[in-house]
Structures are given as structure tokens and as C-alpha cells.
Amino acid sequence: MSSKEAENHAKCETSLKTSITDQRVHTILDAISRSGCYIPPDFVKCAPCNTNATAAVFSNQKGVTICENNIFGRRDLVDRAVAHELIHAFDYCRANMQMSNCAHLACSEIRAANLSGDCHYSVEIQRHPLNIFKLKNQHNECVRRRAILSLKSNPLCGEDAEQAVDSVWRSCVNDYSPFGYIP
């Protein structure tokens, strides 16, 4: 492991320890447990990822991996990435989400973008500083855009991403479980 890789790992681990105590993350972990799914101690971990395009990954076999080579230990990114991927884990646990069903994946991507903080106005302003920020419907536009982008990068959904998101939009964007509201 190079010194840069060791530094990335240490920064990620430090941020992750703090993220796990975040109220939003704690609520999702509690909900997963209450839904009857076991959460091993290493369910959320830092590790390098193959792709530069993602901050974190959920696998029903491996749990949540924070991509330490892409996240650079930034606490705000780690917090959102952990919450985003834990929403996927919660959906997998409570709804028997089929990882090969584009509609199921679309719903979980909508929920994760909606509930993780990915589309908070402060994040959107940072993400698109040159765009004129619209207050009206900006959150939903972000949720839809991010869900479609995520599905387009999935070889199972690819070209069907937009249709999959549209087919489940209404029910999934209004499903705030386990919070009851958009945190």
C-alpha cells in the first residue's frame, strides 16, 4: 500500500467512525435491524473501488463499501454516501429488492437520492455553481436526474433507466421510510 493509499484509508476510516454516529445513519441502521436483517460489525467499511465514478457501493453479499480512493475522507461526502447506500440496504432488507429488477433498483435509487442528502439545496449549489439555481422543484429534479444517472451506469438497466425511474416515480419519491419525512 502506497503512502497515498494509506492516507486515503485513514481519512476514510476517521470520517466513517463519525458518520456511523450521525442520527440519519443511526435511524437507517436501526430500521434495518428492526426489519430482521443482521448487520455484522464490518457491514460498512472503507476500501478502494475499481471505478472513479462512485463514492460508495452496496452489495447484498458484502455490505456497504465506502470508496476511499474516490471520497478523499471528506466527512460530508462520507455521511451522504453512507446514508445513500444504507437506504439501498434497508430497501433490500424490508422489500426483498431484486438486484436484477430495474424497477426495484430505480425505486431504491430514487429513495436514496431523496433521503440521503444527495439533493439538499446546499449540495446542488456546490454541484452546479454556474447554473441558475431554481427553488421550485429543484429537489425532485435532482432526485430524478441522480436516479437515472445511477441506473444508466448499471449494465442491467442502461437504456431503460429513464423508463424505469418514470414507472415507479410517484410511489417511490413519496416513500420516506424509515424517516416519515425527507431528513
From TrEMBL:
InterPro entries: Peptidase_M76_ATP23
Keywords tagged on the record: Hydrolase, Metal-binding, Metalloprotease, Protease
Biological processes, Gene Ontology terms: mitochondrial protein processing; mitochondrial proton-transporting ATP synthase complex assembly
GO MF term set: metal ion binding; metalloendopeptidase activity
GO cellular component, one term: mitochondrion
Enzyme Commission number(s) from the entry: 3.4.24.-
This protein's record includes keyword Hydrolase: yes
Source organism superkingdom: Eukaryota
Family under the similarity heading: Belongs to the peptidase M76 family.
The protein's name in its UniProt record: Mitochondrial inner membrane protease ATP23
